[in-house]
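User: Here's a structure from my thesis project, written as structure tokens. My advisor, Dr. K., wants to see whether a designed sequence matches the one we expressed. Can you design one independently, without my sequence as a hint?
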């Protein structure tokens, strides 16, 4: 059996890391892969939207096509903006892979073959181990006096549109994050930010005097090639975080839920993606924005 992988972003976002995770899994299982789709027995898609691109057009003539619902397919919403695209892709799908039970229940109304496969996490990297907070603070040049006797609230995912960095990426719900923090006592917490395209949240933090520390270089232009933090450093940030907040409106994941729970970092999340698969009800809140 030969598998051909389809789908990539090329910018180092979740799509690309998922592809690497899938490829590594096949290596461990000794399942053959091929770069020639003609020789493939199975087309394994990583990003279902990508399957509809011109690049992927020849793959539509293959028989066994597995599509991955990496971004949440909200077919319960009558105004779902990708409904026509989904219907077109679904005509070619032999099966769907869903990262969450919530997504699986929706897809089962449109396909007979839907399987749940949560995002991969490396427990050797995201492990519960003894750590020295002072050492991590020094490693990332975080002033000790900035976080002393304060709750460190973490947010490590992008929040701005790639086409207009001054505007929020609606799926990530950065407006809710700001609303949750802007009225809290400013001397009791610090918002720890990392990753590229944090422009909107940083702008709003300055507007409302929300105390924050950004692990990266603040700049007006797109910083995707400069502020993308190596994945191996992420566990350090979770370890020094007292509370991680996910305020997204729509997610296939988010992977932050799995990463935070693996390290036993306290986390509150909106009820998106796989959150309800990993978190207790008391850790899930309703988006009221």
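Assistant: Designed independently from the structure alone:
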């Amino acid at each position: 059996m030969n598998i051909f992988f389809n789908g990539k972003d090329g910018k180092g976002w979740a799509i690309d890391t998922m592809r690497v995770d899938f490829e590594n899994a096949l290596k461990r299982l000794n399942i053959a892969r091929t770069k020639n789709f003609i020789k493939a027995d199975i087309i394994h898609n990583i990003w279902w939207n990508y399957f509809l691109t011109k690049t992927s057009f020849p793959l539509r003539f293959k028989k066994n096509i597995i599509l991955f619902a990496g971004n949440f397919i909200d077919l319960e919403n009558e105004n779902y903006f990708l409904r026509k695209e989904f219907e077109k892709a679904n005509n070619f799908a032999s099966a769907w892979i869903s990262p969450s039970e919530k997504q699986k229940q929706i897809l089962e109304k449109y396909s007979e073959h839907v399987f749940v496969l949560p995002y991969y996490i490396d427990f050797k990297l995201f492990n519960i181990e003894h750590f020295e907070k002072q050492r991590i603070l020094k490693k990332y040049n975080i002033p000790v006096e900035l976080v002393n006797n304060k709750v460190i609230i973490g947010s490590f995912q992008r929040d701005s549109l790639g086409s207009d960095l001054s505007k929020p990426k609606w799926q990530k719900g950065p407006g809710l994050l700001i609303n949750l923090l802007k009225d809290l006592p400013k001397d009791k917490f610090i918002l720890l930010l990392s990753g590229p395209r944090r422009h909107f949240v940083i702008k709003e933090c300055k507007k409302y005097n929300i105390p924050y520390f950004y692990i990266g270089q603040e700049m007006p232009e797109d910083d995707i090639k400069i502020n993308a933090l190596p994945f191996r450093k992420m566990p350090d940030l979770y370890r020094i975080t007292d509370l991680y907040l996910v305020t997204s409106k729509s997610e296939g994941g988010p992977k932050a839920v799995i990463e935070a729970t693996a390290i036993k970092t306290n986390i509150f999340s909106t009820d998106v993606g796989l959150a309800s698969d990993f978190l207790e009800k008391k850790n899930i809140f309703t988006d009221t924005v």
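When you compare it with your expressed construct, this may help: The mean pLDDT is 94.
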